[in-house]
Amino acid sequence: MNHDVDNSCIFCSIIKGNIQGTIVYEDDDFLAIMDKYPITTGHTLVIPKKHYDTLLFMPPKEVGELYSLVSIIAKAVVSAISADGFNIGQNNGRSANQIIPHVHVHIIPRFKNDNSNGRWPIRYIASEIELLNYSEKIKNHLDQALLSSFNY
């Protein structure tokens, strides 16, 4: 399904400004926000502003633009959070554990020993203060990440 906006979609509501999201980055086509239910601190989502239920409905050029931005945002997240690594996640469809049917890419910082039991850390509800603090840290590193992305 391809819509400019889906009024029943929480991400579309954040994009329209009807619901608050902790914004890390925004341009004409994409939005990056802090995940309110992070797996680890600094967990960030990159979202196209156009509504696509899954990646299968998104034009290939826009998929490329999305993932180009993901690499830039990931660089800022890892640097800001002092992560030891990161995972990129993108689920498509309910059976693939996609909770919100709007394309979004997870950037999940990883730290030594955060999966010492062999499992993913458990999601938690982040406080507004935590989300704001991490978003500011990421924003402070984003200018450098954007600049370095153009130095090939």
Characterise the protein shown here.
By secondary structure, the protein is α+β, with helices and mostly antiparallel strands. It has one domain: HIT-like (HIT family, subunit A, 2-Layer Sandwich). The protein contains 3 helices and 7 strands, in the order E-H-E-E-E-E-H-E-E-H. Helix 2 packs across helix 3 (128-149). The chain starts with a strand and ends with a helix. The model has no long low-confidence stretch (mean pLDDT 92).
What are the SSEs and their pairings?
Blueprint: E1 2-3, H1 10-16, E2 23-26, E3 30-34, E4 44-48, E5 51-52, H2 60-81, E6 85-89, E7 105-110, H3 128-149
Antiparallel strand pairs: 1-5, 2-3, 3-4, 4-7, 6-7
Helix pairs in contact: 2-3
- Structural class, by secondary structure, is alpha+beta
As for the number of domains, it is 1
Overall spatial form: globular
- The CATH class assignment is Alpha Beta
What would a concise description of this structure say?
The protein has helices spanning 10-16, 60-81, 128-149, and strands at 2-3, 23-26, 30-34, 44-48, 51-52, 85-89, 105-110.
Overview features:
single chain; 152 residues; alpha+beta; HIT family, subunit A; two-stranded antiparallel ribbon; 3 helices
